[in-house]
Amino acid sequence: MTAIAGFSEGKPLVLLIGDVSFGNLLQYVLESEGFSSLVSDDAAEAVELSRRRQPNVVTLDTNLPRGSFRDVLWQMRKETRQDVPVMLLASNMGEVRGLYSSEYEPTDIVLKPFSPATLVGRIRYLLDARYRSEAEPLLCFAGISVDRNTYRAYLDGDHIPLSPTEFRLLEHLVRHPRRVFSRAKLLEQIWGDQIHVVPRTIDVHMSRLRKALSNHAGKTFIRTVRSVGYSLDSE
User: Fold this and answer.
1) 65: number of Cβ within 10 Å
2) Do residues 177 and 128 both lie within one domain?
3) How many structural domains are present in the chain?
4) Domain of 216?
């Protein structure tokens, strides 16, 4: 079942995947804030809507009535639109265990219960980040190129396979080379102030990013500053 709000040019389109009654409530809130929206409670239909309507942001409830939210996320990342921001609406972090160690991870997670203002704020944050990417699509430093339109990174012309989080970390570091960032600052910059991720998660992603870069170049770009944080360096 799908309820489609009036879509007009210039309004960001949000695809709400989950319970229709709850989706209709969110749809009302979003429309009052200047968004257009679609609602679907079916996994296969939601993937097809994403393919056909090209939403600017997707919210995906882990309690999906018809189908698996993991299948939806996998198909969107693998087959449909890898670059679309996907926000998971979860009851607890246990529901999304393992996603942040895969290439099909969500862009953001909001834990229930949440206020309408929180949801709208997170959507605006994701949109702002994406529009900044489109305004400055290519970032470069010391042979590293980050293409923000295609979500692909290169080192000396060779493609570096990265998960979405690793890509965003590299993007941020390339934008600010040689600057040292604490774990807390990286969490704030990459996930914003509403995401429920422990600081040690940064260590895991930075370790994988360091390995991905060193495997291609044979040298270490990610510098660990003990008791402080991380930086990107060419030396």
Assistant:
1) 13
2) no
3) 2
4) 138-232
